[in-house]
Write a structure and sequence with these properties.
Mean pLDDT: 86
Strand order of the largest sheet: 1-4-5-9-8-7-6
Structural class: alpha+beta
Number of domains: 2
Shape: elongated
Order of helices and strands: HHHHHEEHEHEEHEEEHEHH
Largest sheet: 7 strands, mixed
CATH architecture of the largest domain: 2-Layer Sandwich
Length: 344
């Protein structure tokens, strides 16, 4: 049995000399030191030995196992060190190389304008209200003094979902919903930003979906002069202290009297140029005193309370503020266009 153990030792050490990688080493470890290996087989036969032989053969077996294990551990350490060195070489980082630039996003110009308008009116004591984009005909038209047979409905060609549900054509329904919720409480000072939808042919100045911001004030003794002063304050903060406004008579079913609001041309300062068609003025928004019928339908007594409302297109404001000549630039997601606003 001693001779058998010595032969196993020589055989194992001989094969270990031929090992070239970790896989071969693991296979030899199983072959010689595993539960079904020849060394284990020899040890199982020790029960047939005499009491005097067992300690001697046991010592020889332990020596053989230790010799084989020692070589295997040495080989394993060698391969592990080689693998670590190879990985370090592959994963070496050259800290002198220039870093990769990261493309940072920026706030969209329309979002910039909305935030700026909100900040201006919040500074004047207004709150921001929102409402659904899919709206009931009642809130979009009827509660704003536009019954189903009213000819002014033709001014807003609409996207209808059903006979009584449509994509809102303006953010005025938010005003109606707010007045209903307040149940006659005053003062009301709100602005309503949001997307609106109309069946327009898209071109340089029109889009079937665009963004509006409307405002509403209701209280006792609210006058047209309050509307003018509010809008003058707004345009001067938005376009500069030198900006002036003028109000031109107009018609909106939900305001009476109604007025279109012009500002001095932001390009020529009012002296006249191609953009303002030599007039020195640019149209910017619509406004007026809230129609008594609208107040009454929303639960306010028009004999006690009065109010004014105004509405502006965010794209129109942005085009004037940034000198953009085509509304479609805001929606085509052209990074060459959008990057211009990253530092603004």
């Amino acid at each position: 049995m001693k001779a058998r153990l010595e032969a196993l030792k020589l055989e194992a050490l001989g094969e270990l000399e031929q090992v070239t990688d970790m896989q071969q080493l693991n296979e030899l470890k199983i072959k010689y030191l595993g539960k079904k290996g020849p060394l284990t087989e020899v040890l199982r036969g020790m029960g047939a030995l005499s009491a005097e032989e067992r300690p001697l053969i046991g010592q020889v077996a332990n020596d053989v196992r230790a010799a084989i294990a020692e070589v295997m551990e040495s080989k394993q350490l060698q391969y592990e060190q080689a693998e670590t060195a190879k990985r370090l070489e592959l994963e070496t980082i050259d800290v002198t190389l220039p870093g990769k630039s990261t493309n940072l996003g920026a706030i969209h110009p329309l979002s910039k304008v909305i935030q700026e308008v909100e900040d201006i009116f919040i500074g004047m004591g207004y709150t921001v209200e929102e409402g659904p984009e899919v709206e009931q005909d009642y809130y979009n038209f009827e509660a704003l003094n536009l019954p189903k047979d009213h000819p002014a409905r033709d001014m807003q060609d609409s996207f209808y979902v059903t006979e009584d549900i449509l994509m809102r054509t303006h953010t005025s329904p938010v005003q109606v919903r707010t007045m209903e919720r307040l149940q006659g409480a005053v003062p009301v000072k709100i602005i309503c930003p949001g997307k609106v939808y109309r069946r327009d042919d898209d071109d340089a100045t029109h889009s079937h979906v665009f963004t509006q911001i409307e405002g509403l004030v209701i209280d006792k003794h609210v006058r047209m002069s309050d509307l003018k002063g509010t809008l003058l304050q707004f345009v001067q903060e938005m376009f500069g202290a030198q900006t002036e406004i003028r109000l031109r008579p107009s018609f909106f079913p939900f305001t009476e009297p109604s007025a279109e609001v012009d500002v001095t041309c932001v390009i020529c300062g009012g002296s006249g140029c191609r953009v303002c068609k030599q007039t020195g003025w640019l149209e910017i928004l619509g406004s007026g005193m809230v129609h008594p019928r609208v107040l009454e339908m929303a639960g306010y007594d028009p004999k006690i309370y009065s109010g004014f409302a105004f509405g502006m297109g965010v794209e129109r404001i942005a085009m004037l503020k940034y000198g953009v000549d085509d509304i479609r630039h805001f929606y085509t997601n052209d990074l060459r266009f959008l990057k211009q606003f990253a530092q603004n």
